[in-house]
Design brief:
With 261 residues, chain A is mostly helical. Chain A has 11 helices and no strands. In chain A, helix 5 (113-120) packs across helix 6 and helix 7 crosses helix 8 (165-203). Chain B is globular and about 50 Å long. The chains are: A mainly alpha (261), B alpha/beta (253).
């Protein structure tokens, strides 16, 4: 009958690999087996971490990157889901659009930079468009797959219940595709975050963590570089966790179904 | 008994193509079901009995021949012809109440009337207290009862049941047969049911259509003259069941 929702437990085994790596690092630094310019010793790194945390430029850079990420991710996701719905639900649109979509997505993301900067200049516009592109493809492809895989059995129920095409889309295909769309948006977020830092680093204009990282590298501040890497990982992880929890909270039925599978 | 719900199938053919080869699923099928009648179709796998039901539901189209319902040709699916599938086909993202309500989305009536109908049907199929449960939280029998409630919601004049109890264990099955009989008596809906189970057919129906395959065709139509509710232990019921099972086994031989 009613089955209880399984609880998610925190598994401490995930911490083992980072701990081992940290131990190796401490040993390598203390025994002097490693050039301190290439791999900073723990004490210097700790000082660098604290200094960077107190550096307003870092927070401005982080804020700019987040804003850029969210703008690009939202734009790319909206466009991607919209196109995915069209291509996933219409055989004609699929025949016309799918080959081009599949060809264009093979282009490595950063290969767009020369073209985008030529069109839109070395600045925020080109960066946001690149981020949007990074989000666009996972959003579009997952939405398309989700729609195409909406069970025929349930569409038949819609026909039997006299649903029109719009109701079949809204009440059957989109809900059935929802888990796939949600995972597309999560992949899009991760991809957009990679795109954000890459675009900032390579275009190297204005504020942003990519720019901050690039200038730390120029100044040969490996402690700051390492801090940035940790910060990027942490922010990415926090964002994707937040999104996953938001989806789980928004669709309790989906979460239940996912647990059951 | 209502005066609505009469089905006429006249000389229907339907073929499928599997790897380029023609499979004659149905050949020259003619059958009439009277308003309020309970008719079951039995036959070996591949005799086209589910295909026949899909034609009546207008989920598929006949190659030739005519299906008409209350004198009007059947061309597209309609709420007047409800369908219960073998797998319950509830929407997994909706709870029981909302699933039943989808059966009323395109029906006439105010929201309040629809809510009342939904809760009456949930009670009719014995799912009180499970209104907020999602399909994956229900047992197979409960899910199928919810599906029956959904298909009854718009007050269909005929219910097309495609092996609705086929996926259930035998205990649940027996219980659901009684429930189905009760629903039929209560709602007065014409029933056309496909089943593998001859004793189920004898227990429930007024007439049993025995089909044969290659090509799918009607072999004979058996009247079941006993008053309902019937008991399976009644010697006459058991004898008729035996006779039809023999007939089917001869068909297969």
């Amino acid at each position: 009958m009613i089955r209880p929702l399984a609880r998610r437990r925190i598994d401490v085994r995930g911490i083992v690999v980072p701990l081992v790596l940290a131990a190796l690092w401490v040993v390598a630094s203390v025994t002097g087996h490693w050039d301190p310019h290439l791999l900073v010793p723990p004490a210097q790194l700790a000082r660098g971490f604290i200094a960077t945390l107190h550096n307003a430029d870092f927070w401005i850079a982080a804020g700019s990157s987040l804003l850029r990420l969210l703008t690009g991710w939202l734009a790319g996701s909206v466009a991607g889901v919209a196109l995915g719905l069209v291509v996933g639900c219409s055989a004609l649109a699929e025949q016309i659009g799918a080959p081009s979509l599949n060809a264009v997505r093979q282009v490595a993301l950063f290969a767009w930079i020369p073209l985008l900067t030529a069109w839109f200049g070395d600045g925020n516009t080109a960066e946001v468009i690149l981020i949007a592109l990074a989000a666009f493809f996972p959003a579009a492809l997952n939405t398309e797959t989700g729609c195409r895989n909406a069970p025929i059995a349930l569409r038949e129920v819609g026909r039997v219940l006299e649903f029109g095409p719009r109701e079949i889309l809204r009440r059957i295909i989109i809900p059935a595709a929802m888990p796939s769309i949600a995972s597309g948006l999560q992949i899009a977020l991760t991809s957009a975050w990679i795109g954000t830092i890459g675009a900032e680093y390579l275009i190297d204009q204005g504020n942003g963590l990519g720019v901050f990282l690039s200038s730390a590298r120029m100044d040969n501040r490996m402690d700051v570089v390492l801090f940035c890497i940790v910060a990027l990982g942490f922010i990415g992880f926090a964002l994707s966790t937040a999104l996953r929890l938001a989806f789980a909270a928004g669709t309790p039925a989906m979460a239940l179904a996912a647990v059951d599978d | 008994m209502t005066d609505r719900g009469r089905l006429d199938i006249h000389d229907v053919d339907k073929s499928f193509y599997v790897d380029g080869a023609e499979v004659r699923a149905l050949a020259g099928i003619s059958l009439s079901v009277n308003a309020g009648e309970f008719v079951t179709i039995v036959g070996p796998s591949g005799c086209g009995k589910s295909t026949l039901l899909r034609l009546v539901a207008a989920l598929d189209r006949a190659d030739s021949g005519a299906v008409s319902f209350d004198g009007e040709p059947v061309t597209q699916p309609s709420l007047r012809r409800g369908v219960v599938f073998q797998d319950h086909r509830l929407f997994p993202w909706l709870n029981v109440e909302a699933n039943v309500a989808t059966g009323l989305l395109k029906a006439n009536g105010t929201d309040a009337e629809k809510r009342a109908t939904a809760s009456r049907l949930i009670a009719l199929v014995g799912l009180n207290g499970f209104e907020k449960a999602f399909p994956h939280q229900l047992s197979g029998g409960m899910a199928q009862r919810a599906a029956i409630a959904r298909s009854l919601a718009a007050k269909p004049d005929i219910l097309l049941l495609d092996e609705p109890l086929g996926a259930l264990d035998s205990l649940t099955r027996g219980h659901m047969q009684t429930e189905l009989l009760r629903v039929w008596q209560h709602e007065g809906t014409t029933m056309l049911m496909v089943t593998h189970d001859v004793s189920e057919a004898v227990y429930l129906s007024d007439r049993i259509v025995v089909m044969d395959r290659d090509p799918g065709r009607i072999r004979e139509i058996v009247e079941v003259p006993f008053a309902k509710p019937r008991t399976r232990l009644d010697p006459a019921v058991a004898a008729l069941t035996e006779r039809i099972v023999d007939r089917l086994e001869n068909t297969l031989a």
